[in-house]
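Query structure, 904 tokens:
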């Protein structure tokens, strides 16, 4: 990971240990505090070192030395705490002797690390590494890379699969309807074809006619230099003949600001088109446009905002750039090529013609299609691969490339190879995002990643620092990190929630390959896939993480690991659909990986969890979901640093959870036995999911001051409504509540109007009716009712909720035939979803109701009256048995007139 981030994590962890492990570190507290201060002092120049290591092998080795020293320091302190815990259990005399020996040894080791760090720090000046704020110079290698990637506006001959996108873009440039200056952005990952599409449009016949004498193309790059960009534009717009050369020489002597003013004066009376290719950050755009930081509404003064229909076209990898440049324009996000377009692009490059595939050698066609499939629709990879194979059409050569495709894509074209281009996105990441990106390498190819799980793993790994989180929760900060990676096109969204939050994501194969390469360079992780017999020598002894993707986990358990990776911090297992993926013995985990922080066994069949698991006192994350495990050993209460326990369908949860004072995220859904469970000692608890009603009511909820998400389930007929409502009302920070009653019981009447921060409420279970006594919180923005079996129309009560944005009524939530929304009802509602209300045949909407509704979803058999009175409706989905029949989408200015749906 980024060395700056690594040291920041180490500084925070050492600070945490000094507070949380004060008893055990008492004898070496001064040495640990001094080590922490030494590391903190190094942070001022590590950002510069992180950037320089990409181009200078000496700096890379120097950074590696720091990384090893930090790892050594963590290992020594973690092992000391572990040994101190073991010594505590011995008899008095043996305990005193061992403690003295342990303190002496640890003190000497920490001093050795401090000396090593001082020596490393002293050598930084000879490597040209400056402190933050001392300025940076552009390296020769970076300059060479920028020169090689410098784009020109000349159109490419063989462009595949961009016809529709080009037509839409041309429409925005020449028509659009808005005569003000607009900024249109092409957004996408490196190598996806942004520049290619921009060239195609720039040279389009209609664009040439619309902008006949005022077009310019400028390449920006990571090393954004406004003066160079202005000169590129000026040379194309102003100085076009030899007689202008003398004037040009004069202009080249102007300052950056003078050039900007000159360009503004030249453009302000013209209709112009300027392409800015490869803009990397919002700050770069602001610098180029000279946008005032004090006036966010200022459009800038270099590119004037006239009324002649001028346009700027940006290409960028970062969506934030597009939104910053022009919040009124919707960025055009580039998509990967389809399977057919990918093959067409490849065949045109590899076979140098465009004849039918039947005319190609069948053996090469088969190999070619398999290689194209591995490019996963990324045009740059396909072009590089096709160009490489066009040189030699022998089966042997194609087979060689086929079997080592990632290596060829990485090196082909040297500075312009696929990995080099993608690596620019990694280099551009801020230090706090680099470890999060590298962590994605642990997941299998094409794996759909749950964002809930990803956030918890990042927190357990220490990637989300408390000082960065500030006032918001660490989980919210992790979500910000994820969205940044998505906006930089390093992560692809798979599924979003109804309130537009990312629920599932995945990584493009080649981006994952980049993450793997970087992770291996930095000892970030070791074994990733195990298709071959295991060896204890696999992986470095300094390896911090292992990801096991294989069905025969018993074989992995049988290998001796204690000497190969003794300081492993994370161990993740993945079961990719193999029924035989089971492990009967997990003792090896506690024996071999004593300082483990993350253990994830989700989806792996586990017969039992050994008592030895309680010895992993550094464990922060324990994932046991979908393992078939029924019982947890009581020793789990010894895991005092555990932050996340993620399990489900246990027979019972041992009543020892109350001992784990650092617990923040507790998932225990589907308990079979409803036995007492104390949790009111967990003052740091933020998420509690799966506790039963009876367990909950026996705890003092007022002590759970940090709890913001609660899911209750089970039988609730013995729970008294007033008492239950009071226990919920005591949760002053509660934002999300999910109540799930068993089939045999009914939801009690609730009064939650005192829950001021509750914004999300899910209720599943029999309610019979919504009475006025069922008081909803005033700030509720999302409500879901499921299986409530209401016999009277709930709308008269629900439509009065002033801040409700999303309402979902699921199967059997309402048993009546009609619903009516009255005038002024649901003043802020944006999404209304009615799922499988089998008896309902009519929905009536009065004029003035739901003025902001944007999405309506209901059964095809439901007749809707008044749909023409919804001015902002953009999407209507009609459902048959939960499968979408069709979707009607409208643009912002689209009007929907008198739709009347009838299944007769």
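Result returned for the query:
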């Amino acid at each position: 990971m980024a060395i700056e981030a690594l040291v920041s994590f180490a500084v925070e962890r050492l600070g945490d240990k000094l507070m949380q492990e004060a008893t055990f570190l008492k004898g070496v507290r001064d040495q640990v505090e001094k080590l922490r201060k030494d590391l903190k002092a190094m942070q001022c120049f590590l950002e510069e070192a992180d950037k320089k290591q990409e181009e200078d092998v000496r700096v890379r080795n120097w950074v590696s030395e720091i990384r090893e020293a930090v790892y050594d320091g963590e290992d020594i302190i973690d092992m000391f705490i572990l040994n101190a815990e073991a010594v505590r259990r011995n008899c008095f005399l043996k305990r005193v002797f061992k403690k003295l020996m342990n303190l002496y040894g640890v003190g000497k080791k920490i001093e050795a690390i401090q000396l090593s760090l001082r020596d490393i720090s002293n050598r930084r000046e000879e490597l040209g590494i400056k402190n933050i704020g001392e300025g940076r110079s552009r390296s020769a290698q970076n300059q060479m890379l920028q020169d090689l990637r410098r784009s020109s506006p000349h159109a490419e001959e063989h462009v595949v699969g961009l016809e529709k996108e080009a037509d839409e873009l041309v429409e925005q440039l020449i028509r659009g309807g808005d005569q003000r200056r607009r900024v249109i952005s092409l957004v996408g990952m490196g190598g996806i074809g942004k520049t290619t599409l921009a060239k195609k449009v720039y040279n389009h016949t209609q664009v040439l006619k619309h902008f006949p004498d005022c077009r310019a193309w400028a390449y920006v790059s990571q090393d954004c230099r406004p003066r160079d960009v202005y000169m590129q534009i000026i040379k194309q717009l102003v100085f076009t003949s030899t007689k202008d050369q003398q004037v040009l020489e004069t202009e080249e002597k102007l300052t950056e600001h003078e050039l900007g003013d000159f360009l503004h004066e030249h453009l302000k009376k013209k209709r112009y088109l300027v392409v800015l290719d490869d803009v990397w950050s919002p700050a770069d755009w602001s610098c180029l446009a000279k946008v005032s930081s004090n006036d966010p509404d200022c459009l800038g003064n270099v590119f004037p905002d006239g009324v002649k229909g001028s346009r700027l076209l940006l290409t960028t990898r970062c969506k934030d750039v597009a939104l910053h440049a022009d919040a009124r324009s919707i960025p055009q996000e580039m998509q990967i090529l389809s399977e057919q377009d990918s093959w067409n692009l490849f065949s045109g490059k590899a076979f140098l013609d465009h004849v039918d595939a039947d005319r190609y050698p069948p053996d090469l066609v088969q190999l070619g299609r398999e290689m194209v499939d591995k490019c996963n629709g990324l045009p740059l990879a396909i072009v590089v691969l096709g160009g490489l194979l066009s040189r030699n059409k022998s089966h042997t050569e194609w087979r060689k490339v086929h079997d080592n495709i990632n290596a060829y894509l990485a090196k082909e074209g040297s500075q312009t190879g696929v990995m080099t281009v993608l690596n620019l996105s990694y280099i551009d990441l801020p230090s706090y995002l680099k470890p999060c990106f590298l962590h994605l390498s642990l997941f299998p190819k094409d794996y759909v990643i749950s964002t809930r799980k990803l956030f918890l793993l990042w927190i357990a790994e220490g990637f989300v620092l408390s000082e960065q989180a500030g006032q918001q929760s660490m989980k919210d900060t992790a979500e910000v990190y994820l969205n940044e990676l998505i906006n930089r096109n390093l992560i692809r969204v798979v599924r979003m929630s109804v309130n537009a939050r990312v629920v599932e994501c995945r990584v493009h194969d080649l981006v994952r390959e980049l993450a793997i390469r970087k992770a291996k360079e930095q000892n970030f992780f070791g074994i990733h896939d195990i298709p071959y017999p295991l060896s204890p020598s696999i992986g470095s002894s300094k390896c911090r993480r292992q990801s096991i993707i294989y069905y025969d986990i018993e074989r992995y358990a049988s290998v001796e690991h204690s000497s190969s990776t003794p300081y492993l911090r994370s161990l993740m297992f993945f079961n990719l659909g193999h029924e035989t993926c089971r492990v009967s013995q997990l003792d090896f985990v506690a024996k071999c990986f004593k300082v483990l922080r993350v253990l994830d066994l989700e989806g792996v069949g586990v017969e039992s969890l050994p008592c030895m698991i309680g010895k992993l006192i550094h464990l922060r994350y324990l994932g046991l979901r979908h393992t078939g495990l029924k019982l947890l050993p009581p020793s789990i209460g010894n895991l005092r640093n555990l932050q996340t326990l993620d399990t489900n369908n246990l027979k019972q949860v041992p009543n020892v959870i109350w001992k784990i004072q650092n617990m923040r995220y507790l998932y225990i859904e589907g308990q079979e036995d409803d036995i007492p469970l104390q949790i009111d000692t967990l003052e740091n608890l933020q998420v509690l999911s799966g506790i039963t009603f009876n367990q909950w009511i026996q705890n003092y909820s007022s002590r759970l001051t940090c709890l913001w998400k609660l899911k209750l389930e089970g039988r609730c007929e013995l729970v008294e409504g007033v008492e239950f409502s009071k226990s919920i009302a005591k949760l002053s920070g509660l934002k999300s509540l999910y109540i799930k009653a068993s089939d045999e019981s009914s939801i009690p009447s609730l009064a939650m109007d005192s829950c001021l921060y509750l914004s999300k409420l899910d209720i599943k279970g029999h309610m019979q009716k919504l009475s006025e006594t069922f008081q909803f919180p005033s700030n509720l923005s999302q409500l879901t009712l499921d299986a409530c079996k209401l016999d009277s129309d709930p709308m008269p009560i629900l439509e009065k909720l002033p801040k409700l944005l999303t309402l979902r009524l699921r199967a059997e939530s309402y048993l009546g035939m009609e619903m009516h929304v009255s005038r002024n009802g649901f003043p802020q509602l944006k999404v209304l979803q009615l799922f499988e209300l089998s008896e309902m045949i009519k929905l009536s909407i009065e004029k003035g109701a739901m003025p902001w509704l944007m999405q309506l979803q209901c059964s095809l058999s439901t007749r809707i009256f008044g749909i023409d009175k919804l001015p902002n409706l953009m999407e209507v989905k009609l459902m048959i048995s939960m499968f979408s029949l069709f979707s009607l989408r409208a643009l912002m200015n689209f009007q929907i007139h008198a739709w009347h749906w009838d299944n007769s």
